[in-house]
Amino acid sequence: MRFNGNMLRKKIFRDIKRNFGQFFTIFAMVFLAIMAFSGISAFSDGLKYSSVEFYEKNNLEDLWLYSENFTTDDIDTIKALDNVTDVERYLTMPGSVDINSKEGSEPLNIQMELNFLDGEDDVKNISSMYLRDGEEYSPDKDGVWIGYYFAKARGIKVGDKLTFYVEGYEFTETVRGIVSSPDHVYTVSDSSVIFQNAADFGWAYLSINEFPKEYLYDEILKEDDVAEMLDSASDIQEAVDAYKEVGADIDFVKDELDIDEDVDLETALDKAELINSGKASVSDKEAFIKALDPDFKLEDCYVYPNAIVDVTGTAPNPYIDSKELIQFEDKLKSVKNEIYELDDISVSAITDRDVWGSYASLKAESEEGDTYSGMFSFLFVFIAGLSVVTTMSRFVKKQRVQIGTLKALGFRNTRVTIHYIAYGFWVSLMAAALGLVIGGPVLGQPFLNMELSMFDLPGAHRCILSKNYIIAIMIVAAITIITYLSIKSILKESAAQTLRLEVPHIKIKAKEGGKGLSARLPFSVKWNLRDILRSRSRSIMAIVGVMGSTLLIVMAFGMQDSLNHYLEWEFDNIQAYNYKLTLSENVSDDRLGELFDTYGDASSQTVAIEYKDTDGNIITSAITVNDSDGYLRVSGHDTSTYDINDGIPDNTKGDINEEGALYATEKLLKENNLSLGDTLTWRIMGEDDWYETKIVSAYRDPQSQQFSMTRAAFEGLGETYVCDTIYTDDDLSDITDSDIDGVSTITSIESMKEQMNSMLEMISSMIVLLIAISAILGFIIIYNMGILALSEKMYQFATLKVLGFKFRKLALIYTQQNLWLTIIGIILGLPLGYEFTDFMFKYAIGDNYDFFANIDLSAYLIAIIGTLMIMLVTSIVLSRSLKKVDMVASLKANE
């Protein structure tokens, strides 16, 4: 008789069909593992490589420079440095824009970041604009180029006319283009905002030629010599009139009054009268200034405190450790040092991509996917491995006679072994292939769409890398190896041994009867205890599966609870105010006093600093000088909050008002190997002097890892406190940014909460997905557990039925064991759910955040009730098969 592979292939399909439940569990676990890994990787790798492509194509800047003003000569000097390809300067100012919400209603005033580009640059080569609609940018064109997401959210179209405000100055521009930019992929109004609703904050590019001229003229009018001319204009006019009465001409008058002969005195005095009366127009102010200085040019007054640098060469992929990446980073450090050492240029700070909010946020978000995919894949593969061990060992035991028959018919051990390994191989291979195909569009695309609601990344796409196929191959190989290990002992037996039925290994302790407590236990309890001890691998698989399902449910609801807790912690406890007013840079002392009188003097100042870590590396950070009178609080480790002037109980070591005494966030201390009492070397950006002061207190901040300081400690250094933010509980809901002189932006705590709630709504889709996967996982595991139990115990159930046990009693025995194993799985899954959630918040999110799991009791109750319901429903459905037990067939099967 000749044997061929067709016979064994038919046997595989027949056996899988007969044991569909068990093999489907293996299929489902491998499928979920590959789908989770490939799906999450598809979106995270898609973000990574789409951003790298966008940054490279549109030439994202490598360095950001800050100074009081970069002149043309400064730019040329920096361009002349080795390894510098190009430099561009610009002016960024906070502003706002009027948006018509509804016809006939008052326009909404929305915060904007306005970027005024150097008019001498013919094109924008660094961080070039990606045109979505309209015409290309050119400095000689009037109009504005609006950020795509803001334009989309507010329905702004090319050709619309928009009214903007800068420091209270109004100007109108036509929308020339809708654009995206590599340095504005992610934009927020300030560092206190994690998620910015696109409709609530926007950005725009304009030529510096569009800057409101009146703003510049008013700044010039404040200069000492010009202000002196305005103050003395009436006296000069009287002198001129007196000289004219005696026949003197204007040149004689200027000579007598020691006024420069180039000054057009008559025009100056005429316009000065209008200016002093408050009736002067923009042209009147221009005429007055030109009358004083005929050579005056407005473009000479433009100030460019920002510059961006394109370093020679293309930045390597930051997500792949390589020699080229290290060399490029060394090149950046070299260029930084060279710029700092330039004698004629005063650069206050230089930062690279890793510090830039847009770049760093997208990088952190895309790297989170690596943690998610690895965590979920490990869980599913672990359960799949247990399923394989249990299913295949039971399956092979049932096929002892068939294995013996195959050997007796002449099949070699190798051929029989390959045949049974094929069960695990083909099932896992098909599952892996389907997971790879479905993961991207079903899981990856929704996640990518969610991310793209925050990140303006043109051409973003899913990306399936070779690692996905490698992981799939590794998982299939692992399942195949586990299959072999679970069956090798039986396959090694001889044909004669295999043809004999295996004698059950029953220990004395497992026999019926006994003394003491065991004698008093109900029959169903003793029967199930004995069965669990006999079927340890199946029981362990069931427990681990239920544990995984419970874990995911706790994670799903725990994420929601933890983020809700964050909202309360950050926006109710730490930021304990209703509104904050961000002050204009040039607000006068008199105006500041008026603002204090109106809104209170609770304030703070943010100071950009550089500090040295324990290895001597210079790191950019910030100090919040807190004089908020408890409106801006510091948090202890347990999230209790305190006024900074009171210190933090049990976490303060030293005098908080001592000269330069620093508060530091706990996470910053940990990451820099610092501790309370250590001395930190730091300096204010733009200054040469370094301070060495002690860290006297540690606090927690969920979204910003930096330093804080009391006003007394700051002024103790000899520094001048200049507040940039005022906090108030007044109701400013009817006031817009442009309504208060000296205030650039007004931010309500409610608006920040709403922005976070918008993010939570997006996260809810991920939570729904987690819940669905948890339910599927729970059903599959419990269903498989039930099928295995029924198939193994059909002989025992038939015996019990012969002995007179009714269906209800049999169903109770069957369900009772499932209930026990489910409860054990739940007990183990609840704390693990907390630990996994805490792990995700600590390691999957960006380094700037300090989140932790804070899960409400309701999440645990939902996990318990949900898992038990799945178990009960599955057990009830499966127990119906007990009604159909063929007692004769079941009993004869074991003869």
TrEMBL record:
ABC3 transporter permease C-terminal domain ranges (all copies): 375-494, 769-884
InterPro entries: ABC3_permease_C, Membrane_comp_ABC_pdt
Keyword Cell membrane: yes
First and last residue of the signal peptide: none
Domain of life, per lineage: Bacteria
Keywords (A to Z) from UniProt: Cell membrane, Membrane, Transmembrane, Transmembrane helix
Localization per Swiss-Prot or TrEMBL: Cell membrane
GO cellular component: plasma membrane
Transmembrane parts of this sequence: 20-43, 375-396, 417-444, 464-487, 540-559, 762-790, 811-834, 857-878
Main location: membrane
Keyword Membrane: yes
Membrane topology: Multi-pass membrane protein
Annotated protein name in UniProt: ABC3 transporter permease C-terminal domain-containing protein
Organism of this sequence: Butyrivibrio fibrisolvens
